[in-house]
Amino acid sequence: MRAEAVEAMMPYLSELYANPSGSHRFARRARQAVDEARDTVARVVGCHPNEVVFTGCGTESDNMAIVGAIARRGGVALCPAVEHHAVLHVVEHLDGRSSGGHASGRGSVVGVDAFGRVDLDELAAILGATPDVTIVSVMAVNNEVGTITDIAEVARVVRRHAPDALLHTDAVQSACWLDLRDITPHVDLLSLSAHKFGGPKGVGVLVERGGPKVDPLLVGGGQERERRSGTHNTAGIVAAAVALDLTDRERVDENVRLVALRDRLVDGLRDRLDGITETVPREYKVAGSAHVCITGIESEALLFLLDEAGVCASAASACASGAMEPSHVLAAMGVDRSMALGALRLTLGQTTMAADIERAVDVIGAAVDQLRRHHPTPAVADVSAPTTLDPIASAS
Description:
This protein is α/β, with parallel strands linked by helices. The chain is built from 13 helices and ten strands.
């Protein structure tokens, strides 16, 4: 969390504790804080304040958009195969059965190209062959590999082939890197999560442009103009607005700074190690993403060594047994399984400094060397120079 966001939320955890849904003066003061936060979010996102709905997290916002659209209208939900599971699992689990009196629906998944961008021709074909599409959900920035989606182009395809369908974007990974005002005009629904831009965990946003578009997930209190019942997390909402405002003000300079650091990180790894493949070309992804695949190692062992050395990183998803499996994102992109097993997801942000980059290169290099010494492979032994080996890099 940003220090300013922590400072902003503290009064609402102590003396300003009233429920903003109440009617007395202390409640009205809390309600004013929520309303002012709503104004700030609307200004940064590029919408009207009454289009901002505060939720409990980005996952809830995604679910509300898709489940709420199907509950209201039935029909089909579409999304690309690389979406965050908060979208992908919802679409996959739509099975056409009526639930709780809500309208029934079904889901369909669209393919992507080698960079993780939705296949617009396939999307157009599915839309043209499916007359009852209710909602299309396409993320603005991929959470795993950092790929940027041209939401305006997606919107043109959707409006042409399914003019009555809603367009939703999971923009959770976007606020630090993209001006949300350039995204919002093209969509009907947009989701955010505060902890991705220096706010607290447990606060999300769903923007419903033009007023309510979907049925609520939560009912029983009538908060958020009947769109999301439940007592407001006043402290979290205030802190989220502060963090989003700061992120918006600093975005341009931070992008310049972090692009340079990201490139130093990846170039440093390639100078230090053989068999490093940059998963998505830099021109197609955000500044904070440094996703690579490393030949001759498995992510699970590498992450253990990095954690022991104090370098926080991630890789692919884990199945129920705990065994590492290639991520659904890399599989959808067509990355070879042997390469995907060596995936390493490194991210940079507001707190990242040059010293962190140098240390990360040293620690990762030493860890990979250690693993390769204990488990040498012909693929590594034959590599004599930094590689741009896979078809993703060569296709660019």
